[in-house]
Amino acid sequence: MWSSTLVLAASLAGFFEVASLPLPGPHADSFLVDLQGDGLADLGILDGQQLLFYEQVMEKAALQIALPEKTTAIDIIDLDNDGWCEVLVVAGNAVRSTTLLAQPPYQWQTLFECGSDFAALTSAPFLHVLAVSHQDTLVLALPTERGIELRALGGELMETYAFGSEAGTRITYGRPFIAWGVHPSELGGPEALEFRINRVSASKPDLPEDLILDDSTMMRSNPVNLQRAQLANVKPPEKWPLFPLTPAAGQQIHAAIAVSEGIHPLTLVSTLMEDPAAVVSEKPSIADKPGPIRRYPGVPLFTENWPDFDGDGYYDLLLWRIRDLQPTLNRVTSALLDGRWPVRLTAHLFTPAKERFASAIVAQIDTTIPTEWLLSAYNGLPLRHLVVHDIDGDKRSDLAFSNGPNTFNVFICNSDGILPAKPSFTRDFEEEIAELTFVQDLNGDGKASIGLKGSTQFFILNPARAAVEVDGLAPILPALAP
Amino acid sequence: MITAVLILSLLAAPWAGDALPALRVGPPRPIGGVPVPNWRNEDIDADGKRDLVFLDHAVLQREGRFPEARIALPDQPGAIALDTWEGSLYLRSLHRLEVYRWNGAAWEPTFTQDFTWPDFDAAYELGAGLRRQGALRFETFLADLDKDNYPEMVVADRNAVHCFRRTENAFLKVGEWALYPPLQLTMTSSRALWPPQARRVMLPVRQMACTVLLEAGQIAVLHRETQGEGDCFVRNSFALTRDVNSGNFALTPGTPERSELVPEHVKPARLNSDSILDFAGGRWELSMTTPLPTPIFETWASVDGGKSFTVKRATSLQSFRPHCSFIDFDNDGFSDLVTEGVAWSGGPRETLNRMLMATQIAHVIRVYRQREGGFNEEPDYTAQVEVDLAYPIVRGGPRLLQYQAGELVNITGDFNGDGLRDLCVRTVETTVEITPTVREDGVLRPAWESRETVPGLNAQDTLRVADVDQDGQSDLIFQTASPGAETPDAVTRVLFNMQKDR
After folding, report:
1. Could you give the C-alpha distances from A146 to A115, A158, A162, A383, B157, in angstroms and in order?
2. Do B442 and B448 touch, CB atoms closer than 8 A?
3. pLDDT at residue number A242
4. pLDDT value of position A398
5. CA-nearest residue of chain A to B217?
6. How far is Cα of residue A467 from the mean position of the Cα atoms in its chain?
């Protein structure tokens, strides 16, 4: 029996309602899915061999489905166009499905059997897009040794798109084969011959236009990060890592960034324009020479998304630094023994007319973090579960982060692009936040919900709505209603 | 070019230095402590001394030194792989194998065979364009599998391991073994199913990674296997026998072995000579049990196939990486477990004061010997040294980076050839201290009274330890940081221990 709680964050400036859902197991993973085709996201939880589904702001698992043995890939999609999702799995050689409209225990129907790469896997089940629309028909895309096979729901092979050496487009993923000798041998004696063998098979298949390939794994990710920026510090700006200052492709302005090391690091920025005539490639071709180097106290918060606080279409600069600039023995001892370390976040808006970040600080947030976070900061990022996202739907970036194991803060930007000094919303959860699981607009209203995973519960921060049902159970799926 | 001979007047008497500009050696491997050199030791002039063979030249050894001019290797523009065997050079090019021997005056071709290497073009068609143009490198492809004193040649391609046996006139194929585990999908992490625009056909990437080990009449193939909530390692072994009549090798499969599920931070290792798969590795933890959060490096080892692990913890500096965690410290055939860390003393305030003010750090090395079935609970060897960092820890600096990279302290060398590893520390920027290890009443200890100082390092040099002349005594390598811009003052030098019976 899944216990649950629903908590209204009425006292928290009304920004979020916080729902908590029990976490069935330590390895459970959450995902979003639209079970009823109503455009509203529901929450799914994959916990080993079982699936759980919660409707929005639901307090108990509406559906609980045991997966067939040998299940590897799982998809959830409306296969029969009745408005309700089916669960589709590959279990060994069998492709099986069950409808969510049925009453438990759910019966699994075998659609067809065929060999695929999924059959050989021994890994735990994972979510995977199996069903895709091709020529207005829902088909299953299965990877096999021959290529990506498109099969009708009845199993008939429709087409095969090779992705090996026969692929039409010669874009490969890594080196197809490497064998090298280890000398002297690590696993054998002095006279042993030891080879390391690595074989990769993947090339981009020539898929029809209506099938979009997720080739993100083929992209060579080379983001600007702290290490690269620090290494760049001893080089001229022409060799600093570049960061585009607008999300749009094409002619755009870039920031070349370096970070000095030491107790009081500086972020060094020089802006420059991309050559619009150059062939689009991984590394932009720069038309002009770097502009003057400008220095900003602190280290950038290197995140997946850079902020645009004022919504002008240009990214802004968000920096952090240790608040006490003179680390005397007394201050350091006090901070360490207290277990908290003071840090300061500062924001500088980009000024397009001047092609630079303004030297003026438009927002300053003083906070403290656990000292151990400072020591174990990944990519120099002392805050955890950092969110840079338009949370309130006003097209301006907002900020959210944990500054303690159980704490989550949200800072909503005002119309001038200024972050408040104090959090717009803060919440101390009853357990440590282990993971930020999603930041997603769940109902199409432009406002983002935030999913957090604790040790025993999922927490979902939903933007406050006019009416929230708090008495009794929230409505559950019609199929389960008495 | 005549190799310059440098007798460094500042050196203590037993050390003599040769400038070897081309010589480079990497840091010691974390398991085993063997550094990866850019040369091979081979006795090419049959004088009983092992010479240095680089990719483009060789240098002969004379009385424990390398004073003579470079000998250019045979010019083979298309060569891609070089291996050595009993004084001969085996050069593989795209479609040929050539063997050369030094006759005292020139390289003499002793064997030539046109070759179509198995699946060669397929193997090298992509990602190896440079090698097509003759980017030569060392590869190990020779081994005497049948103990007839002639080497077999072993080449791996994408489908199989191929074996060629030397006859009087040619290498003939005597084995083709398709032993690799099958390709498996690699991208098995969950993907977004919603919103609809996030639904994409996944590019299937299939991968296979394994280790093939040929040793003592058998072949073993080792690979990682994901099982539900963890990974294990699978070892498939095959007995290797040669048919006397046909000369072909035959494989007899053994029973596959599957390890326990093992943590991600360990990998297969050979920690002793038994047939059980060992595992070794390490990871960082942040200890919160002390008043100050303390970085801890945990060293993990299993000698029972992953059933149980020995874990030793050492307090360290943030980002410190031990230079070597497993080495046969006392030459008994068992790899021993080494921990390195910082000796903090006093309370939190004293510790902080040192981090803010002190330019030296107290570095502690502990060695836990391996015995039958495990490692000793208490350290069998402990040494503490003061290392100068030039600046307080909080200010950083290049010396701190060298320290964190494990380049200032080295326990892998045996400088007096007694079978015990000795302690080598770059105490200050330009000076190395060597402290031999002694065994007294069965107890291992650093012999501080016999500590020896070797000056002469350039500030920007990297200190390496390797037995360059293969005399059983480790040598010091002062490796220049910029090999492309060498000057007489900035060139890689090797300091050989000339006092053989210390």
Report:
1. 11, 14, 6, 46, 20
2. no
3. 84
4. 94
5. A192
6. 30
A213 CB neighbours in chain B (<8 A) are: 200-203
**Shortest CA gap A382–chain B (Å):** 15
Q: What are phi and psi of B482, to 5 degrees?
A: -130, 80
Residue in chain A lying closest to B276 (CA) = A187
Write the residue in B138, B202, B226 that is nearest to A128 by C-beta: B202
DSSP B386-440: EEE-SS-GGG--HHHHHHHTT-SEEEEE-SSSSSS-EEEEEEETTEEEEE-EEEE
- How far is the C-alpha of A297 from the C-alpha of A299, rounded, in Å? 7
| Residues from chain B contacting residue A336 (CB–CB below 8 Å) | 291-293, 348, 352
Q: How far is A353 from chain B (nearest CA, A)?
A: 35
Query: Reading across the β-sheet that carries A317-322, which strands appear in turn?
Result: A299-300, A317-322, A340-348, A363-370
Please write the tens of the pLDDT for every residue from A326-368: 667 777 777 777 778 889 999 999 998 888 999 999 999 999 9
CB contact under 8 A, A218 and B203: yes
Do the chains contact at A194 and B213, CB–CB below 8 Å? yes
Nearest to A192 among B201, B213, B222 (CB): B213
User: Is A193 close to B143, i.e. CB distance below 8 A?
Assistant: yes
Q: Are B248 and B175 in contact (CB under 8 A)?
A: yes
Q: Which two tokens stand for residue A250?
A: 């094409």
In this prediction, the residues of chain A whose per-residue pLDDT falls under 50 are 1-13, 57-59, 219-222, 278-282, 466-482
Instruction: Determine the Cα–Cα distance for residues B375 and B260; give it in Å rounded to an integer.
Output: 19
Question: Under an 8 A CB cutoff, do A198 and B209 touch?
Answer: yes
Neighbours of B378 (CB within 10 A): 8
How many angstroms away from the CA of B182 is the closest CA of chain A? 9
Q: Which chain B residue is nearest to residue A190, measuring alpha carbons?
A: B215
pLDDT for A60-114, tens place per residue?
Answer: 557 889 999 999 999 999 999 888 899 999 999 999 999 988 777 889 999 999 9
How far is A424 from A411, CA to CA, in rounded Å? Answer: 5
3-state secondary structure of A231: helix
> What angle in degrees, to the nearest 10, is found between the helix axes of A329-338 and B348-357?
130
- If you average pLDDT over every residue of chain B, what do you get? 87
Distance of residue B188 Cα from the nearest chain A Cα, in angstroms: 6
